[in-house]
Structures are given as structure tokens and as C-alpha cells.
Amino acid sequence: MRNPLLALLAGLTLAACSSQPPAPEQGGAKVEDRSPAAVKVDVAPVAPVTAGKTDGFSLAALKDPKSILSKRSVFFDFDQYVIKDEFKPLVEAHAKLLVANPQVKMLIQGNADERGSREYNLALGQKRAEALKKMLLLLGAKESQIEAVSLGEEKPRCTEHDETCWAQNRRDDMLYSGEF
Predict the structure, then answer these.
(1) What is the pTM of this model?
(2) What is the pLDDT of residues 113-141, one digit of tens each?
(3) Which of 74, 90, 68 shows the shortest CA–CA distance to 129?
(4) 1-5, 155-159, 168-172: which range is least confident on average?
(5) Residue 68: how many CB atoms within 10 A of its CB?
(6) Interatomic CA distance for residues 32 and 146, integer angstroms
(7) Using DSSP, how many helices (H) and how many strands (E) does the chain show?
(8) Pick from 9, 79, 82, 141: CA 20 to 30 A from residue 152's CA?
(9) What average pLDDT does this structure show over 43-57?
(10) 51 has pLDDT over 70
(11) Which CATH class is domain 74-176?
């Protein structure tokens, strides 16, 4: 008696699962027509783009040896992080570029020569990078455009052990979007 009862119960359960959804009532929610003929696409004209240029920011000017913007390093005296007067026109030119192109980002890498402890050189490199960043901000660049980091003595430009070489390693390097 138990098997026929289970079969009947299973049959009723399956019959209940096969029911159709109720028909939509009059005045109910409307169904959106998504057929290809019903879809309308607005196409805006695309502005022409010239290679190497974005809103007045020219990568070519950064690589043109005749442009002041091609110079990307500021050098410091031994154990100093004050920007010397001879580099102020260079910093001003880079600040103008940043002000004119708010979408452009800059990374300043502060460096030190090999003399001094690793920790000291990292701190000195950071002070140098922050000094350059502060000057760029005072000239109108935005905080969100500039990041200042220290590499300490880890990225020397010259590896000799004399004053001429050490002078090349006491510097800030300016890198732009796409270069870091």
C-alpha cells in the first residue's frame, strides 16, 4: 500500500511543478522591446587625436634636447636639500607644464651619493624630493599630480668614488606619466 501512495504523491508533485506562470493582467508592467530594430544608438563624433600629444602635453618636448623640459634632474650640494638658483628656471618650466596639463602626473625620485648610512641617504633623498615637490606646488601644480619618493643611494648615475661622480648622484629625477 505504501508504494502506490508514494507514486501518487510524486505524480502530484511533478504536476504542480509544471504549471505555467500567470498571464499578465491588463494595465500591468510593460515589457521593454529589445529587438535589433527597436534599439537606437546615439553615436557622438570622435575628436581626432594627434600622436604624442594630449591636451597640450607633448611628450616630444620632454625628449627634445632643445627644450628645457628635456632636462629632468636637479642637483644638490653635499648634505643639502635646498634647490639652487641655477635650477629654478628648470623647475618653473616643469611647473608650467603641470599647471597647463592637470591630468599629467609626475614622480620625483630623490637620490643621494654613497657616503652616509643607508637610512641617512634614504632620509636625505626624501627631503630632496619633498623640496622639489614643494617648489612645484608653490608654482601652481596640484598635490594630486606629484609623488615624491626616495631611492637613497640605490640608483647611482655614476659609480666612481670621487667628488665629480658623487655630485652626479646627489639629485632629484623627474619622471612623467608613462615613464614610471
Answers:
(1) 0.69
(2) 999 999 999 999 999 999 999 999 999 99
(3) 74
(4) 1-5
(5) 13
(6) 49
(7) 5, 6
(8) 141
(9) 46
(10) no
(11) alpha beta
Dmax (CA) of the chain: 106
Query: 123-150 burial string, b = 16+ CB within 10 Å, else e?
Result: bbbbbbbbbbbebbeebebeeebbebeb
- Counting other chains too, the contacts that 151-156 makes at CB distance below 8 Å and 24 or more residues apart are 151/109, 151/110, 151/111, 151/125, 152/111, 152/112, 152/118, 152/121, 152/122, 152/124, 152/125, 153/111, 153/112, 153/113, 153/114, 153/116, 153/118, 153/121, 153/125, 155/109, 155/111, 156/111, 156/113, 156/114
Supply 107's cell numbers: 614622480
Instruction: Say yes or no to pLDDT of 28 above 80.
Output: no
Secondary structure letter of residue 145 according to DSSP = G
Query: How far is the C-alpha of 175 from the C-alpha of 180, rounded, in Å?
Result: 7
Q: What is the DSSP string of 2-37?
A: HHHHHHHHHHHHHHHHTPPPPPPPTT-PPPPP-STT
Separation between Cα atoms, residue 110 and residue 173, nearest integer Å:
7
| Whole-number average pLDDT of the chain | 84
Q: Domain spans of the chain?
A: 74-176
